[in-house]
Write a structure and sequence with these properties.
Layout lengths: L1 E7 L3 E7 L5 E8 L3 H15 L3 E8 L28 H6 L6 E5 H12 L8 E6 L3 E7 L2 E2 L32 H5 L1 H8 L12 H21 L3 E5 L8 H13 L6 H5 L1 H4 E2 L7 H11 L2
Parallel strand pairs: 1-4, 4-5, 6-9, 9-10
Antiparallel strand pairs: 1-2, 2-3, 6-7, 7-8
Helix pairs in contact: 3-10, 6-7
Bound molecules: zinc ion.
Zinc ion binds next to helix 4.
Length: 291
C-alpha cells in the first residue's frame, strides 16, 4: 500500500511516496511559488512515481480549514503568502487522484507523526508545540485532534510580560502575543542576531525565552491536562533550553497539579520530539494513514 505525502511549507513543498510503516520510496523537494506552478509539480511527481496511491496526506502551513465536514475543507485562509490565499488543496488534487485525501496543519502533522513513530507513542492526549519561525501548537485530546470552529491558535495566546522585558513583539496581528515575544524572528529582532541560536548559552535571552515558553506550557497543561508535552522547532535545538522550560513550567504550576508525571517525572513529561529529519513528511504519511 502506497501513501502520498505532502509537507507544504512557506519556502518549499516536500513530497514523498511511502508505505504505512513510514518507509519512503520516493521524495522530491519543490519550491513554493504560486499554487498553479507548485501544485502542478507536486501532481507530476506523484504521477511520475507510477505508484498507485491508497491515500494522500497533506500537512500544510495555515491557517486552513481542517474540518472534513466543512464546505471549505482543505482551503487556506488569510495568509501573508498572498498567492495562496483561499487556495484549496482538495479540488486541485481531486482532478488527478480519486483516493481519500487527509488535510491538516503542519503542526498537527508533526503531532501525529510523533504519535505514530515518536515521543507520543501510545498516548491519547498530548500536545505538540513548535517554536521556530512561528509558534504553533497541535495535538490530541482522547485520540482526537483539538478542533472546534477551526484548529486552535495556541501560538498566539497572551502571556504575562517579563518584568525586565521592554520589547514590543513582532506578531503582525497582536505584537506581543507568545509568537510575537518568543518566536525565532522575535529573538532575532530583540537581540539583533541573524539566528536565535547565535545567542551565547549564558545570555539572558535564553532565560527570557524559557520564561515565555514555560509559562505558555503551564497554561496548556492547565487547559488540556495532556499526558505529555512535546516541544520541537528550530529554537528548541538550543542545548539546555528544554531544561529551563521544564523549570519555568513547574515554577508556574507551583505544585497545584499533583500528578506524579508532573511532580516527579517532568523530564519525561515535557520532552523534545523523537522524529528528526523526515518528521514533516512522516507526519503527512501518518495523517493519511489515520484519516
Ligand atoms: Zn499573534
Amino acid at each position: 500500500m502506497w501513501i502520498g505525502a505532502i509537507e507544504a511549507g512557506g519556502t518549499k513543498f516536500v513530497c514523498a511516496v511511502g508505505n504505512e510503516k513510514g518507509k519512503i520510496a520516493a521524495k522530491a523537494v519543490i519550491p513554493t511559488t504560486t499554487p498553479a506552478k507548485t501544485m502542478k509539480q507536486v501532481v507530476d511527481f506523484f504521477l511520475g512515481t507510477k505508484k498507485k496511491l491508497a491515500s494522500i496526506g497533506v500537512a500544510s502551513f495555515g491557517p486552513l480549514d481542517i474540518n472534513p465536514e466543512s464546505k471549505q475543507y482543505g482551503q487556506i485562509a488569510v495568509t501573508p503568502k498572498l498567492a495562496w490565499q483561499k487556495f484549496n488543496y482538495l479540488p486541485f488534487l481531486r482532478k488527478s487522484f480519486s483516493c481519500p485525501i487527509a488535510i491538516n496543519t503542519d503542526v498537527n502533522g508533526a503531532a501525529i507523526g510523533e504519535l505514530e513513530w515518536g515521543a507520543a507513542k501510545g498516548l491519547k492526549s498530548f500536545l505538540y508545540m513548535t517554536v521556530g519561525t512561528g509558534i504553533g501548537v497541535g495535538g490530541m485530546v482522547m485520540g482526537k485532534f483539538i478542533m472546534g470552529l477551526s484548529h486552535s491558535e495556541m501560538g498566539h495566546i497572551f502571556v504575562p510580560i517579563h518584568p525586565k522585558d521592554r520589547f514590543k513583539g513582532v506578531c503582525p496581528i497582536h505584537k506581543n502575543c507568545l509568537e510575537g515575544l518568543a518566536s525565532g524572528p522575535s529573538m532575532m529582532k530583540r537581540w539583533k542576531v541573524a539566528s536565535a541560536l547565535d545567542l551565547p548559552p549564558k545570555h539572558f535571552g535564553w532565560d527570557l525565552e524559557a520564561f515565555y515558553i514555560g509559562t505558555a506550557v503551564a497554561n496548556y497543561i492547565l487547559c488540556f491536562s495532556p499526558e505529555r508535552v512535546i516541544i520541537g522547532g528550530g529554537v528548541m535545538k538550543k542545548e539546555g533550553l528544554i531544561e529551563k522550560v521544564r523549570e519555568v513550567a513547574l515554577h508556574m504550576l507551583n505544585g497545584y497539579l499533583h500528578e506524579d508525571e508532573i511532580l516527579h517525572h517532568i523530564d519525561r513529561y515535557i520532552v523534545l520530539p523523537k522524529l528528526k529529519g523526515d518528521a514533516g513528511i512522516l507526519g503527512a504519511i501518518a495523517l493519511a494513514k489515520n484519516f
